[in-house]
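Troubleshooting log. The previous structure file for this entry was overwritten by mistake, so regenerating from the original sequence record. Sequence copied from the archived sheet and checked twice against the printout by T.R.
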Amino acid sequence: MGRKPKVIRICPRCGQRISALAKQKVGDRVYLYAQHYLGTDENGRRIIKKCYLGPLDGYVYVTKMHSDIGLTLRAMADKRRLLEYITTLLNTLLVKDVDEETLEEVLETLTEYTDKLRDKLERMKELPAK
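Regenerated output below.
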């Protein structure tokens, strides 16, 4: 059996390659950091830069400010957060009282972006697999 190819992760904060992910517990919350290995200092100690990626269980205080639309803000490391945000916002449009003009604007925007996303997906399918 061959080795799995190494996945190179890029930091969403700074754009550098991630050497490792680290968790740090503060009180009852756990926070995620991207670590970037930058080499060693004159004493041979590793030089590591850390980038904050957010809490593992979502943003408590900021989420309270978005409770009227049902949105729970999630950590940057949450791979499903984009889909969760879109689904939550679309569901909010279905269950909340929204004026007709806003719904028409949303539908027009969704139609425009649906076409753009289809085009992007088709172009991606045409590219050779990495």
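The longest strand covers residues 29-40. Archived copy saved in two places this time.
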